[in-house]
User: Fold ABC transporter substrate-binding protein from Motiliproteus coralliicola.
Amino acid sequence: MTLTEGEIMISMTQRWTRFWRSSLLMMLTLMIGGLAQADSATPEQVIDSSYQSLQRLIDDKVLVAGMPDDELLALMEKELGPVVDFPRIARKVMGKHGRKASEEQKQNFVGIFKHSLVKTYSKGLENLDQLKEVEIGKAVYDKKKKRAKVPSVITLKDGQTFQVQYALYLNKAKEWKVENIIAEGINIGLVFRNQFAHFMEQHKDVGKVIDNWAIATAEKEEADKAKADS
Assistant:
């Protein structure tokens, strides 16, 4: 049976909603505790170190439900900064529309994009104690050994499992940085890029899209959840 475009979209939204419950856990799995990477660190070691750091943050009560957004943002900046290339991700989210933005607007979008992620994922903090384990698979490299994909399985205490794949690239300093995540078959980078393109069609101005990104993203999340629940 061939699915209609609408049915495909509903199916994707339902998969996204299923993963949403542990989306914070997915993001925090990247946390590396601010530790500098050794030049010889492999992509698997980067992700595994992130998980170990996450466990320490939970055990030490540093990461807790109900913590203020500004504290979570500061923690995210400290922990994710060494391993996630936010400027690169933000540029990819803007896509071709980034050519219409000034350098100041691009820099502003990096900060706004990170803050919107914090607002989004902070909603899942109440499920933080549901994380049981993260199993890291073997990295698959491209021919030039400059990019790698690391598969993982997030398991919750209730038995639910989530497939998450991390895409990393090797920067000029020979450090592996995360540039995208595919969660339950959903390409997170592509989702945000499509959102930016959609907002551009609405506002016709890159500055307005950047300024309204957080509000527009939150409204779209609520609409998607409502569709999945209906």
